[in-house]
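Weekend entry, working from home. Most of the wet-lab plans are on hold until the incubator is repaired, so I used the time to fold the two sequences that have been sitting in the queue since the last round of cloning. Logging both here for the record. First:
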Amino acid sequence: MLEQYKKWTNEFLESWKALDYERVLATLDKEAKYYENPIDEACQSFDEVINLWNVVADNQKDIDYQYKIIAYDHDVCIINWQMNRTMTHNNVKQEIDGIFQISLNAEGKCIYFKQWRFTR
C-alpha cells in the first residue's frame, strides 16, 4: 500500500509543479470527497474541484516541493508536504507547510482528499 500512496503523491505533486491541472484532476476519482479547506464543507461536485484547479497555471509558478508520508494503513494515508512557489499576480514568494489526508480506490485514484496548510 505504501508504494501506491507514494505513486499517487508523486503524480499529484509533479502535476501541480508542471501547472497541469488536467493531470492533477486525473489523480482524483470523479466522485471523490474533496476538502480544499478542513473547516469548509466538501466540494459539492467535481466541477467545483475543476474550478479550484483550472486557475493554478495562471496564478503560480516556480513550484518546488518535498513530502514525507508520516502515517498510513490500508484505508488512509497522511502526508506532510512543503512547497515553495511564486504567486504570479504579485511575484510574492510563498512557503507552504501542509498535510494531506487521502484515501485511494483499487485503481489508485483519490476518493477522499482533505488538506490543512500554513502559508508564509
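Second, folded right after the first finished:
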Amino acid sequence: MGVRKFKPVTPGQRNKIISAFDDITCSVPEKSLLAPRKRTGGRNSEGKMTMRYIGGGHKKMYRIVDFLRNKDKYAATVKTIEYDPNRSARIALVVYEDGEKRYIIAPKGLTVGQKIASGPGVAPEVGNTLLLSEIPLGTNVHNIELIPGQGGAMARSAGCYAQLVAREGNHAVLKLPSGETRMVLVTCRATVGVVSNADHNLESHGKAGRRRWLGIRPRNRGVVMNPVDHPMGGGEGRASGGHPRSRKGLPAKGFKTRNPKKTSKKFIIERRKK
C-alpha cells in the first residue's frame, strides 16, 4: 500500500496524490453482494435541499459488508482484497467452508489465501473476531460493537484502530482513535488488527472535477455571503470578523455540541482531545 504522486504535466495533476491500489487483487466485485444505491442530491422526500454541497457523482453500487462477523461454526478463506467506493478502507471477500461468501473490512496485513475465524475460543490473530473478554490487553482492534449482537460500529475507517487498555468487571476499557477512553461491555465483539489503507489521509484530489466525480459540489465560505444568508456574512470589502459559527448560528470552534444528558456519558472515562 502507498500513494502515487504525479508529475505536474497538467494543472490537474500538479497537486494530485492518489492511492497506489497495489493491494487490490480484483477489480470486479462479487455480484451477489451488491445492492443499488440511489443518490439523493441532498434533497428530502419533498424535493427540498436539506444538505448543501451534495450532487452529481459517478454511479455506485453498495457492497454489503458483514459487520456482525457472527458465523462462528466455520472458518473462512480470504479470496480477494477489493476497492470499495463507499468507504475509505479496503474490503475483503471471504468464502466460508460451507460455500457462503461475505465481504468484511480488510485489516492491514490480511492476504489472499489466509484463514480467518470468529467466535469464542478463536486465536487473537489479525482478521479474527472474538469477544473483548478473550482479547489480550494491549491489542489493537477495529470494527468494535457498542451493543452485543448489533454489529461493529467503531473504528471502521481507513487506518483506524482502538487499543484494549484494561478490563474492569463487565466492561473493557478502550482508547479510541479520537483519543477518547470509554468502556464497552466485554460481551461485545471486535476484530483484531488495524484497518487497511492507512495512507488514505495523504490523498489529494488535485482538481475540482475529481471532487465532482465523488458527488461533492463546490462549497462557498460564510464570510463571502450576505447577512441574510449567513451570520458571518456582510461587511465592506473583505471583512471577515465575528466569531466563527455555522449557518444556523452555532459556534464552530471549541463549542461543545454533545448533549450532557446523553445516556452513554457514564461509559466515557475521558473525552476526546480538542
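Plan for Monday: verify the second prediction. The helical segments are 11-14, 208-213.
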